[in-house]
Structures are given as structure tokens and as C-alpha cells.
Design brief:
Layout: E1 10-13, E2 22-27, E3 37-41, E4 50-58, E5 65-67, E6 77-81, E7 84-88, E8 98-104
Antiparallel strand pairs: 1-2, 2-8, 3-7, 4-5, 4-8, 6-7
Length: about 100
């Protein structure tokens, strides 16, 4: 069953990229499933444009992390509507923490 997992996220600022770009890291709970969604309001971070996203998944909780795609080989999908980024987690993987690096300007 898919769920909106926005309220269970941990969000941290990344390294300053420049005056024009912002980077944040979004960490889900270890209960994240494929099909779950979360939203990020770009204006909350002083941004108006979504530029890029990198995805990492914990294959062993808080230990082994793989990048780029989930264990099923597909990347999560994104959309932006009215300044709100929606990320839909891909695959059929259940109960695995994920980390996303999001770049905005």
C-alpha cells in the first residue's frame, strides 16, 4: 500500500553549492516502500526551480548503501507542480531506508 511519507522525513542542508543553488538531503524512515511519495516545497528553501535528484537505498539498514536506483533497477520519479516537488519511490522494495540528494535553485 502506498503512503505519503512526508511527515516522517529527516531533511538536512548539504554543502553550499553557490549563491544561486541549494542542496538538501532527504532521509526516509526504514519503513519506506516502493510507491510511497513525499513532497518538498521549493520556496521553503528559497528556491523556485528543481534541478536534479540522486537516490540511495540502504540494502542493510544503516550499513550497506547503494546509489542511483533501487534494488529493482529503476529510479524514483519526480514532478513539480506549483513549486512543490513530488517524489514517488520506485520499485517493489519494502521497508528500506532511502536517502535523496536534491539540488534546486
Amino acid at each position: 500500500m502506498t503512503a505519503d511519507i512526508t511527515t516522517g522525513l529527516t531533511i538536512r542542508d548539504g554543502m553550499p553549492l553557490s549563491n544561486a543553488y541549494r542542496e538538501i538531503f532527504v532521509e526516509t524512515a526504514a519503513t519506506a516502500d516502493g510507491g510511497d511519495t513525499f513532497t518538498i516545497t521549493l520556496a521553503s528553501y528559497g528556491c523556485t526551480k528543481f534541478l536534479a535528484i540522486d537516490e540511495y537505498i540502504h540494502t542493510t539498514e544503516d550499513s550497506v548503501v547503494v546509489g542511483g536506483m533501487n534494488a529493482g533497477g529503476t529510479a524514483s520519479t519526480t514532478s513539480v507542480t506549483a513549486g512543490v516537488l513530488t517524489v514517488t519511490l520506485s520499485g517493489s522494495t519494502t521497508n528500506q531506508k532511502r536517502v535523496f540528494r536534491i539540488i534546486m535553485r
